[in-house]
Amino acid sequence: MTRDSGFVLWFTGLSGAGKSTLARRVEQELAERGLRVEVLDGDEVRLNLCEGLGFSRADRDTNVARIGWVAGKLAHHGVAVLVAAISPYAEAREKVRASVDDFVEVFVDAPLATCAERDPKGLYARAMAGHIPNFTGVSDPYEPPAAPEVTVHTHIETVDASVQRVLDALTLRGLTSDPDEVYSSSEEEAVAARLGALGDLG
Amino acid sequence: MTRDSGFVLWFTGLSGAGKSTLARRVEQELAERGLRVEVLDGDEVRLNLCEGLGFSRADRDTNVARIGWVAGKLAHHGVAVLVAAISPYAEAREKVRASVDDFVEVFVDAPLATCAERDPKGLYARAMAGHIPNFTGVSDPYEPPAAPEVTVHTHIETVDASVQRVLDALTLRGLTSDPDEVYSSSEEEAVAARLGALGDLG
């Protein structure tokens, strides 16, 4: 059974903070609850929708706006859309928030030193050596959200704990349910369950 | 009730051939049948996903590829996606076809003279006066589909007739049903209907 109204769950933070890892884990959890889920990863979107855009503020803002436009379309049709994108500028994120019915912002917070130590793509080393201009956190700004719905501290909490806090935030807003409750969350399912209790009338 | 599998219904043809008119009418019909429907109009997509792209073959192909990517995402989540875009190059359309499970191509065919006479945006007059380079059908090529699922001839048939032929093509492929049959098309609806006949057990 699919929910009728989708939402946009937006993970913002530095490269290496854990956005994609978290998004993929939350994706699994939501899929198990019967939601339609789509992950829009910053890198994938750049390839498919933003080839030719660079890393100036204007180009980054365009990138975020395009992700937001696609996310909004999907959410409008009942999809739980998980976006993992650095999205360093608060104003661009706020524009997306204003354009979407249910927008939940997750600040994936980890100190720059931690991200640089993880350096999954080897980019921090190059950026710190001065080889990458416009690298967020090193040679380009990152504006933390002023009032995110959730902040996770990936340098001091486990992935499981972060996932749970994101799910709690969604549950609090009625955007997902505890897995044990999912069969009572829809009228049709309740009808089918009651009918089942009466035996097979088909 | 929403279908589980969406599809992409792609209207291609010259400017003024009737793509948007048809897409909007088919949208209404499908919405009345209970489908989730999204219309991606070429102009709207250019504004939101393709600002900066021009009308060279490469840029047109990129435009079509981006529309196709978004359409595929939506269709994957059960949406009936109606695309109205000139999409003049066969190869670009075929790439989208190859990337989508259910792709139904509608060739919206009308002679250039008819489109130029309609000229809803006043563009043909300017193009024919030599003021618009790369104007499809005048100063830029249009490659008709070799084997579209549907061809509608908007200069000799009514809009109603064209709409009906598009709907017939969808019905033939099991992508929509006759409106009178829609309530027997889903298990849950059938269960609810049977339960309704037993009286209110809630």
Descriptive report:
The structure is a homodimer of 202-residue chains. Chain A is of the alpha/beta class and 202 residues long. The first copy, chain A, is built from eight helices and five strands, in the order βαβααβαβααβαα. Chain A has helices at 19-32, 42-49, 57-76, 90-99, 112-118, 123-128, 159-172, 187-197, and strands spanning 7-12, 37-41, 80-84, 103-109, 150-153. Chain A has a five-stranded parallel β-sheet with strand order 2-3-1-4-5, sandwiched between helices. The longest helix of chain A has 20 residues, at 57-76. The interface between A and B is medium-sized, with 26 and 26 residues.
List keywords for this structure.
homodimer, disordered C terminus, alpha/beta, 202 residues, 5-stranded parallel β-sheet
The gist of it:
Chain A has 202 residues and is of the alpha/beta class.
How is the topology of this model organized?
The structure is a homodimer of 202-residue chains.
Chain A (H helix, E strand, L loop, with lengths): L6 E6 L6 H14 L4 E5 H8 L7 H20 L3 E5 L5 H10 L3 E7 L2 H7 L4 H6 L21 E4 L5 H14 L14 H11 L5
Helix pairs in contact in A: 1-7, 3-4
Largest interface: A-B, 26 and 26 residues
Q: What is the count of DSSP helices of chain A, taking H or I runs of 4+ residues? A: 8
- DSSP, total strands of chain A: 5
The radius of gyration computed from the alpha-carbon positions of chain A, rounded to a whole number of angstroms, is 19 Å
Classify the secondary structure makeup of chain A into a structural class: alpha/beta
- The amount of helix of chain A comes to 40-55%
Q: What fraction strand of chain A?
A: 5-15%
Elements of chain A, N to C (H/E): EHEHHEHEHHEHH
Oligomeric state of the chains present here:
homodimer
Strand arrangement, largest sheet of chain A? 2-3-1-4-5
How widely separated are the two ends of chain A? 20 Å
Mean pLDDT of chain A: 88
Low-confidence runs of at least 5 consecutive residues of chain A = 197-202
Biggest sheet layout of chain A: 5 strands, parallel
